[in-house]
Structures
1.
Amino acid sequence: MSKKDTAPEASRPMPLTARGLKYLLIGLIVMLSGIILMIGGGSDDPNVFNYAMFDFRRLVAAPVVILAGVAIMIIAIVKVPKYRNKE
């Protein structure tokens, strides 16, 4: 075992930095905005078909925005800060 393996947990740096937490928050906000884009469009009368349910905003834009939010969150978690690459 090396000295690096026996270091106590308290002396190890936090795996997620403040910058990473900011990116996680941004990703969450982007995902919530995508969910908001999907809201609405129901019909008051069940016998009348509402074409607003199948518009571009709901079928294309909202899922793309949600996937962008997920990508931002993945990058925030996986990205290693520059000062840790030197170790």
2.
Amino acid sequence: MIKSELIQEIAMRHPHLFQRDVERIVNTIFDEIIQAMAEGNRVELRGFGAFSVKQRDARMGRNPRTGDPVPVDAKRVPFFKTGKELRERLNGGTDSGDDD
């Protein structure tokens, strides 16, 4: 599902809302998640999951074509960990107990 399909689905389920208002709401939610992560904060949506930022240290990588070593700068990357309810629904109600 892409963002426009999400907006359309929400608008269909809530006909009392204008589609432009639903679009504004969805964009605001995504913008707030992005802003919080840019500030290094964790965003938790109970039952769904948690968005966080992980730091990757600088390292030496390899050029896949030549095999030569290449320096790779340190960077921050987004990370998502699923919530228990989402994991259970994806696995048909059974949870393996792993908290990876």
3.
Amino acid sequence: MKIIYTVLGTLFLLIGFVGVILPILPTTPFLLLTLYFYTKGSDRFHDWFIDTKVYHQYLEDFVTTKSMTLKQKWTLMLFVDFMLLFPFIILEGASIKILIVVLIALKYFYFFTQVKTIKKDVSN
């Protein structure tokens, strides 16, 4: 099982690196998944990842202080909204659509009430 976690962590790390290059793909959620899977899969990969510049630039503030820049928040939330738009359009039934709208509202509520907004520029 640890091998699967490590492979998934590496997959999400690669997608996160693509997000660093392509501004339409958010980096933070994929790097958070990388951290999660490396934590479960391999101490060696986890330790390596938390020593990388990418971790320090994109995740350290969130992991240690539960804070993000406004740009990080909006990028993450809009990407998730975009992904939730597909089931909203494709699936039929009012109950599932209401559930998706509630999920989106709760996400915004959580990010603007529970995650601190910092002014640090992530491009530095």
